[in-house]
């Protein structure tokens, strides 16, 4: 049944601390011997963004990223939403039931810190749409610039995030 004209469902209000996280490849620069990864966090309430560039897309990198986000955030993180990548969960790779075991390093760190770790439905990136939209903007910036080095690319990304946050 259609809603009467002018009737809108209100957006749910969130407190700061519900953070969407994703990881993307960065283009390999001529002065690099392999690609790097950009870990991205965006707070659902404040839209604050934090990035960190890592050499590897591993659970250890994800844990280090979480530590860096917690240190940089002006609020307490209570919930993290990630996809089902191996760096975040064993849901699709270590379990026949397709449920996280709770034994994954990232899950254990979240639990130890009192952070609820939520997972998107498999193959539905739109569930994590907030960080996906930011990554789309970030990709546009990378495509619209020529970078002379990995350092040049990294400086541009950090400047983009600084401008986005201010």
UniProtKB/TrEMBL annotation:
Signal peptide location: none
Record carries keyword Nuclease: yes
Pfam families given in the database record: rve
InterPro entries: Integrase_cat-core (IPR001584), Retrotran_Ty1/copia-like (IPR039537), RNaseH-like_sf (IPR012337), RNaseH_sf (IPR036397)
Superkingdom classification of source: Bacteria
Domain Integrase catalytic: from-to ranges: 6-166
Molecular-function GO terms, alphabetical: endonuclease activity; hydrolase activity; metal ion binding; nucleic acid binding
Record keywords: DNA integration, DNA recombination, Endonuclease, Hydrolase, Magnesium, Metal-binding, Nuclease
Keyword Nuclease found: yes
One annotated GO biological process: DNA recombination
Name assigned to this protein: DDE-type integrase/transposase/recombinase
Organism: Comamonas aquatica
